[in-house]
Amino acid sequence: MKKRNYGKKLMLNLMVILLCTSLLSTGCSKINAGTSTGDSANDTANDIVELLDTPEIIAEMEKARELAGDDESLLITQRLQSRDLDENGIPTGAPGVDSEGAKTYAEPTQIFDNLYYVGTADSGSFIFTTTEGYIMIDAGYNYSPEEFIIPGMEELGLDPAKIKYILITHAGPDHVGGAKYFQENYGTHIVMSEQDWGTGKRPDSDSEEVSEDEQEPQEEQDIQDVQETQKTQEPQNHKKSQKSQKPQKPQKPQKSQEPEATQEPEATQEPEVTQEPEVTQEPEEPQDESRMAFEMPEQDMIGTDGQELTLGDTTITIVHTPRRVDGGGLSYIAPVFDNGEPHMWATYGNTNVVGTLEDKAVYRESIEHFLSYTDAAKVDSVISNHPFVDGSLELMEELRNQEEGEPNPFVFGEERARQFFEVLDQCAVVLTERQKAGLDETGTMKLEEEVEEEVVVEEKVEE
Q1: Nearest partner of 112 among 333, 341, 310, 402, judged by Cα
Q2: How open is the CA angle 270-273-278, to the nearest 5 degrees?
Q3: Which of 44, 197, 218, 398 is deepest in the core (most CB within 10 A)?
Q4: How far is residue 300's CA from residue 182's CA, in Å, rounded to a whole number?
Q5: For residue 321, is pLDDT > 70?
Q6: How far is it, in rounded angstroms, from Cα 328 to Cα 132?
């Protein structure tokens, strides 16, 4: 894998830490935004980012940087997850939901013999081909199937009618939005965590809960189908997986109604655009609002912690990895092959760190829990379902342009694969410490100041 020389940057960072330590006696640190690049042509000496990080926070941030080292992919992850300064000295932030990247077609790519990526530059779907059909992870936005996923599959010579299961990482509009399309058009089974199935209301119902009589037979039949497949299908590309443990019967969700469009507040809360006539006249604004809307699929299979789902010659392990107290979210581990050579692959379902201090503690517990699975499975390849998190699109381009015999850039090795999750965990430490110190995620503003600024903006809008 290609690596950059970050020696100069690391030296500058050390100098910054020494400077910060002396300045923090007054409660803040100032960093020249231009110094992070080391390139005088790009230096912006007049731009100053004021960091309010304590010495303890700075030390935790440095640990995150050290974990990333000079690995280009890990550095992308570290900066994003810890809201660290980018090359221009600006705190790094993730693109918003339904961002420009969500409308940008990503070139479909065969990553391994049995694994493909289709979707956008923002989020996409992983497709596993098996001897009995396909297993897909995530379904994108409500518009993704027709605009991105199916065209991408056709370009790769894959048939969407062969998708037997869609495994959802979590019930965000960019992950589950397209699931109903496949369920209605192809009869695809949808697998989600109990908590994610239990959010919202059914489109055809007010707030009625699904009774045990209504829900249990469907769920038991689905699990039985999976177990029967395990018994009857023999793998062709690798040694037969051990017979899956029968998953414990999950507790019934408190709710199981599917919402029509419960997650679309953002597009309607932008009154500031009225100050820019050009923006308010763009026809895509109302279109984006509808593109954010989605209907949950009809309740189907509940994915439980440690459950194994087998289709044909492929068994995928499901792990519950919430990022909030009592939250949902699933991550996945699966066998892949590179020119016939076996490897173990993983993707993590709740990458971004959010919420309260208690939520962040849950996030870290989930990382540790998932690592116990990836260590046992000897995972040596990790890819985010959001390509901007780990620079996956760049690696896919590198893979597509390779000469025969060159190593697959997604085969990282066990130590490097584990490092990805260690970076996620350490970045969560940084954000936890900032929150404990009363700072926002970027470390540039006190939380009470942030609230005051929001109040001022609201008052201006009302005027």
Answers
A1: 341
A2: 145
A3: 197
A4: 13
A5: yes
A6: 29
The tokens 């990247």 sit on which residue?
A: 101
Q: How many CA atoms lie within 13 A of 308 on its CB side?
A: 19
What's the CA gap between 285 and 290, in Å, rounded?
9
SS3 call for 46: coil
Contact between 423 and 386 (Cβ < 8 Å): no
CA distance 257 to 253: 10
Nearest to 31 by CA among 43, 19, 42: 19
Q: Which of 372, 455, 382 is nearest to 413 (CA)?
A: 382
Residue 295 has pLDDT above 60, yes or no: yes
CA 308/CA 231 separation, integer angstroms:
13
CB 324 within 8 Å of CB 362: yes
Q: What is the DSSP letter of 149?
A: I
Q: Give the pTM.
A: 0.72
- What b-and-e string marks burial along 105-132, b requiring 16 or more CB atoms within 10 Å of the CB? ebebbbbbebbbbbbbbbbbbbbbbbeb
Q: How many residues does the chain have?
A: 463
Concatenated DSSP letters for 67-103? HHTTBHHHHHHHHHHHT-B-TTS-B--PPPTT-GGGG
Exposure string of 31-56, with b = 16+ CB inside 10 Å and e = fewer, is bbbbbbbeeeeebeeeeebebbbbee
**Mean pLDDT over the full length of the chain:** 76
DSSP one-letter string for 304-316 = -TT-EEEETTEEE
Considering Cα of 405, then 411, then 414, then 415, what sign does the dihedral take? positive
The identity of residue 1, as a single letter, is M
Rounded mean pLDDT of 24-53? Answer: 48
Is 243 a residue whose pLDDT tops 80?
Answer: no
Burial class (CB in 10 A: 0-12, 13-18, 19+), 221: exposed
* 336, 115 contact by CB (below 8 A): yes
Asked if 117 contacts 129 with a C-beta cutoff of 8 angstroms, the reply is no
206 vs 380, which has greater pLDDT?
A: 380
CA distance 149 to 289: 21
CA distance 182 to 192: 15
The predicted structure's pLDDT at residue 274: 38
> Would you list the DSSP string of 290-333?
HHH---PPPP-EEE-TT-EEEETTEEEEEEE--SSTT---EEEE
